[in-house]
Specification:
The complex is a heterodimer of chains A (154) and B (544).
Chain A (H helix, E strand, L loop, with lengths): L12 H14 L15 H9 L2 H19 L8 H14 L1 H15 L3 H6 L23 H4 L9
Helix pairs in contact in A: 1-3, 2-5, 3-4
Chain B lengths: L10 E2 L3 E6 L3 H11 L5 E4 L17 H6 L6 H4 L8 E4 L31 H5 L9 H15 L23 H14 L4 E2 L37 H7 L3 E3 L3 E7 L5 E7 L5 E11 L2 H11 L25 E7 L15 E3 L15 E6 L4 H11 L8 H8 L3 E8 L8 E9 L5 E6 L4 H20 L4 E5 L36 E3 L14 H17 L7
Parallel strand pairs in B: 1-9, 2-3, 2-9, 3-6, 4-15, 9-17
Antiparallel strand pairs in B: 5-11, 7-8, 8-9, 10-13, 10-16, 11-12, 12-13, 14-15
Helix pairs in contact in B: 1-7, 1-12, 5-12, 6-11
Classes of the chains: A mainly alpha (154), B alpha/beta (544).
Chain lengths: 154, 544
C-alpha cells in the first residue's frame, strides 16, 4: 500500500473515497453549516491524513478489506447503510485510529471561517489578539475570608 | 556496566567550576543564584531555545500542533532532542518538555507553595517520612523565587501562612466566578490561584492577554518559563548555557569525586567536560536515568546510589478530572487556561475520609474549538453524523471543570530504571517507569472527584462526570533521589549534596521526600535557591 500514497498527499481513488465517506459520516452538513466534505474544507483534511501515511494506510486497508469480507464488494460500490456499517465496525475495533481520524477532520473543520463565525469565535490564531476578560469583583471571597486560617499548624 | 570508549578520542573542553545539567526550572534558578560567586559556571541542556513566535498559539492550527510537536508527551512529540520513555507499566504517563526552560515551557504556571504540614507527614500522619527541612527553612527562598518569577495572586489565602504576591491575580471570568459561587454555596474554601503569569508588565515581560492555552507555550511571554525569567539574568551575569548537549554520564576520579561529564553534542559526538562541582537538575525521570547510567568501579550501581534509592519512590500526582455542563456560555476559552481558582478545603488530613493526606481542586478554563470536538466525540457526548452540530453547540463553551491533584506517597516499588532495550537517538538507555496507584491515592481520587461533582452541581451544572487517574498527566515526577539525613535511606543530604559524592548536588523534583497535593515547580525552584545558598555559605569547605 505504501506506494499508493504519494509524498505530495495524493490518494488513490479508493482511499479518497474511504476518507470522504468517513468525514461525511462524522460531520454532515446541517442548516447553514457545511459538511466536513465541503470543497473548502476537505482538501485540508486530506493533507492532514497525508501527514501520517502509516495510520492512513491502516485505516483504508481496514475499511477496504472489511467491505470485501462483509459484502464481497468494493467499498466504493456499497450503499450508504452498508458503508456506514463497515465504518462503524471499524470505529468499535480501532479507537486509536479513530482518534487520529477525529483529529484530522476536526482540526480542519473547526478552523473554517464559516464554522468559527457560527460559534461566535474570532477568526485567526489566539495570539496576538487574546481576549478581554472583565476584572473580578472580589467581594465574592467574603465567605472565604471569614473562615480564618484552615492550614494545619505544625 | 557499559564499556567506555577510549577517552583519548573524545573532545575535551576547558574545565569549569560548576557544571549544571539541565536548564529547566531548577537548573536555571541554581545558575542565577550561583552567578554572583563569579565562578565559571556552565549549564548543559539537551534541548534548544524555543522561539515564542513558534509556539502554537501564533497559528490557526494551534490545537493541532499541541497534539504533535508541542505535545507534552515525549513519546508523541518525538523531537530529536527528546528521549523515549517506556511507560507501558504505568497508568500515568510522563509529561515533560526538553529545552531551555524545561517543563516550564508547557506548564500551566500554577504556582502554589507546599503547606507547612507537607514537610512533616510522618510526624503528623505516621506515613512516609518527614523532610529534613521545614516550611520555615524554605520560606525566604519561596519569596525570592516569587520575586524572580513574578507571581499573580491575592494576599490573605486562609489555606496558607501569610505571603506576599507580586501583582494582581488572573481574572476569573464568567467561568471562574460561576464556580466560585458553587464553592460558596457549599461553604468550602476557594481562592484565586497563585499563578506564574504576569498580569501586568514584569521584569521585561509583557502582560497576559488571556489568549487561552498556556500549556502549549506562551507566545505573549507573560508566563514565567525560565527561558524568559532566570536565564536572561544568569546569562548577563556570565553563566554559559550550551544547548543540544545530552549528558551521558557523570565521571568520577580515583578519589570517588565527580570529575565532570561525558556528553553527546548536537552531532552525536561525545565530548568531555571537566568540573569541580556537578549539579544535576534533570527532574524526577531524567535525574535517576543519568545517575543510573553513570556506572564505574567505585559506583557499579550508578553514582550516588549506595543506598539503592536512586530511581525508587517515584511519585506522580494522580489527577482526577471532573467536568460539568452548564446552560449558559462561560467564555471558558478566554483567560489563562490552567489558572483560575483553587480549593484546598480537603487538603489537610481527616482520617474519617478513609485516606491520609489530601488534595487540591484546581479549576481549569474551557477548551478550544477542536479540543471540544475531539473530547466530546471521544467521550461519546458529541456523536458522529446527524446530531453532531446540535451536540457540539450544547457543549462548546458551556463546560467547566476541575482537576483533583492528589498527594502521592512514596513507595519503593514505584521506580525509574534503565530500559534494557529502548534507547534514545544517541544510544543511551531510555528510562523505564514501573508505577502502581496506591489504595490511598485511589480513595483520595474518588473522594475528590465526588466532592468536585458536588461543587459543580452547586455552581449550576446540569450534568457532571469524572474520571481518574488521568493517563497523560504525569507532569510531576518526584522522589527518585530523595533527600534525607540518613545515607542508608536517602540519596542527598538536607542541603542537596550527595551522601556518596561530596561535589555532586541534586536540585530538582527527584529530591522530594513527599509530593504534597500541589504543583511542585514553586517548591522545586525554592529548593534550588536554598541549596545554592547553602553552597555559597560553605564555599570554603564545600566538600568537608
Amino acid at each position: 500500500m505504501a506506494e499508493l500514497i504519494t509524498s505530495d498527499g495524493a490518494f488513490t481513488e479508493n482511499q479518497r473515497h474511504v476518507l470522504q465517506v468517513i468525514a461525511n459520516m462524522m460531520i454532515p452538513a446541517s442548516g447553514t453549516l457545511p459538511a466536513a466534505t465541503d470543497a473548502q474544507i476537505f482538501p485540508g483534511i486530506l493533507e492532514r491524513f497525508a501527514e501520517n501515511t502509516e495510520a492512513t494506510e491502516q485505516i483504508c486497508d481496514h475499511i477496504l478489506t472489511a467491505a470485501v469480507q462483509q459484502f464481497d464488494a468494493d467499498f466504493g460500490t456499497l450503499g450508504e447503510i452498508q458503508s456506514e456499517r463497515v465504518v462503524n465496525e471499524f470505529r468499535d475495533k480501532q479507537p486509536e485510529l479513530v482518534r487520529f481520524i477525529q483529529i484530522c477532520v476536526a482540526s480542519c473543520y473547526y478552523k473554517d471561517s464559516r464554522v468559527m463565525a457560527s460559534l461566535g469565535v474570532r477568526e485567526g490564531p489566539p495570539h496576538p489578539g487574546g481576549y478581554p476578560v472583565d476584572r473580578t469583583e472580589w467581594s465574592l471571597l467574603e465567605p472565604v475570608r471569614v473562615m480564618g486560617k484552615i492550614y494545619r499548624k505544625v | 556496566m557499559s564499556v567506555k570508549p577510549s577517552k583519548e578520542k573524545l573532545v575535551s573542553n576547558d574545565p569549569v567550576d560548576v557544571l549544571i545539567i539541565g536548564a529547566g526550572a531548577s537548573g536555571a534558578a541554581m545558575a542565577w543564584s550561583l552567578a554572583e560567586t563569579r565562578m565559571k559556571i556552565l549549564c548543559l541542556e539537551q534541548g534548544e531555545w524555543v522561539n515564542p513566535a513558534d509556539y502554537p498559539t501564533t497559528s490557526v492550527d494551534w490545537e493541532l500542533k499541541s497534539f504533535g510537536e508541542f505535545s507534552y508527551s515525549p513519546n508523541t512529540r518525538k523531537r530529536s532532542v527528546d528521549y523515549p520513555i517506556n511507560e507501558k507499566n504505568s497508568p500515568i504517563k510522563v509529561a515533560n518538555f526538553n529545552g531551555v526552560g524545561g517543563g516550564t515551557i508547557l506548564y500551566a504556571a500554577h504556582f502554589p507553595r507546599f503547606h507547612p504540614s507537607d514537610f512533616k507527614v510522618k510526624s503528623l500522619d505516621g506515613v512516609a517520612d518527614d523532610w529534613p527541612i521545614d516550611y520555615q527553612t524554605l520560606e525566604p527562598f519561596y519569596a525570592e523565587n516569587d520575586q524572580m518569577v513574578g507571581v499573580a495572586g491575592l494576599k490573605g489565602d486562609p489555606a496558607y501562612p501569610d505571603k506576599e504576591v507580586s501583582m494582581s491575580p488572573v481574572p476569573l471570568g464568567v467561568l471562574g466566578e460561576t464556580l466560585a459561587r458553587g464553592f460558596n454555596e457549599k461553604g468550602w474554601h476557594w481562592w484565586p490561584s497563585d499563578s506564574a503569569i504576569a498580569t501586568e508588565p514584569y521584569d521585561g515581560r509583557d502582560k497576559c492577554v488571556n489568549l487561552g492555552p498556556c500549556t502549549t507555550g506562551c507566545s505573549q511571554g507573560a508566563k514565567a518559563s525560565t527561558d524568559i525569567t532566570y536565564w536572561p539574568h544568569a546569562l548577563r551575569a556570565g553563566v554559559e548555557l550550551r544547548t543540544r548537549c545530552r549528558v551521558k554520564e557523570i565521571t568520577v576520579d580515583e578519589g570517588g569525586m565527580a570529575s565532570g561529564v561525558i556528553y553527546f553534542d548536537e552531532n552525536g559526538h561525545e565530548q568531555i567536560q571537566k568540573a569541580e562541582v556537578v549539579v544535576v537538575a534533570c527532574n524526577g525521570i531524567g535525574t535517576p536515568r543519568l545517575l543510573l547510567n553513570s556506572t564505574s568501579i567505585a559506583f557499579p550501581n550508578g553514582i550516588a546510589n549506595s543506598s539503592g534509592m536512586v530511581g525508587k519512590n517515584l511519585m506522580f500526582h494522580p489527577y482526577g478530572h471532573v467536568q460539568g455542563m452548564f446552560d449558559q456560555p462561560l467564555k471558558g476559552y478566554q483567560g489563562p487556561g490552567g489558572c483560575c481558582i483553587w480549593s484546598q478545603e480537603f487538603y489537610e488530613t481527616d482520617e474519617s475520609r478513609g485516606y491520609l493526606r489530601g488534595y487540591t481542586m484546581e479549576i481549569f478554563r474551557g477548551k478550544g474549538l477542536v479540543s471540544s470536538a475531539i473530547s466530546g466525540m471521544t467521550a461519546g457526548t458529541i456523536p458522529w453524523g446527524k446530531g453532531h452540530h446540535d451536540a457540539y453547540l450544547r457543549e462548546f463553551d458551556k463546560s467547566a471543570g476541575m482537576v483533583i491533584i492528589c498527594e502521592d506517597l512514596p513507595e519503593l516499588h514505584n521506580t525509574v530504571t534503565l530500559d534494557p532495550d529502548l534507547v534514545d537517538s544517541d544510544g543511551m538507555p531510555a528510562p523505564k517507569i514501573d508505577y502502581t496507584l496506591s489504595e490511598n491515592s485511589r480513595r483520595m481520587l474518588d473522594h475528590g472527584m465526588a466532592r468536585g461533582k458536588e461543587a459543580l452541581i452547586a455552581a449550576g451544572a446540569y450534568e457532571v462526570n469524572s474520571h481518574g487517574p488521568i493517563a497523560h498527566a504525569g507532569w510531576h515526577n518526584m522522589g527518585t533521589a530523595r533527600m534525607g539525613i540518613d545515607p542508608q535511606t536517602s540519596v542527598v543530604n538536607e542541603w542537596g549534596r550527595s551522601h556518596d559524592v561530596k561535589n555532586l548536588f541534586i536540585v530538582d523534583g527527584s529530591i522530594f521526600v513527599t509530593s504534597a497535593g500541589v504543583n511542585p515547580t514553586s517548591t522545586i525552584q525554592a529548593l534550588a535557591l536554598y541549596i545554592a545558598d547553602a553552597m555559597k555559605k560553605r564555599l570554603a569547605n564545600l566538600f568537608d
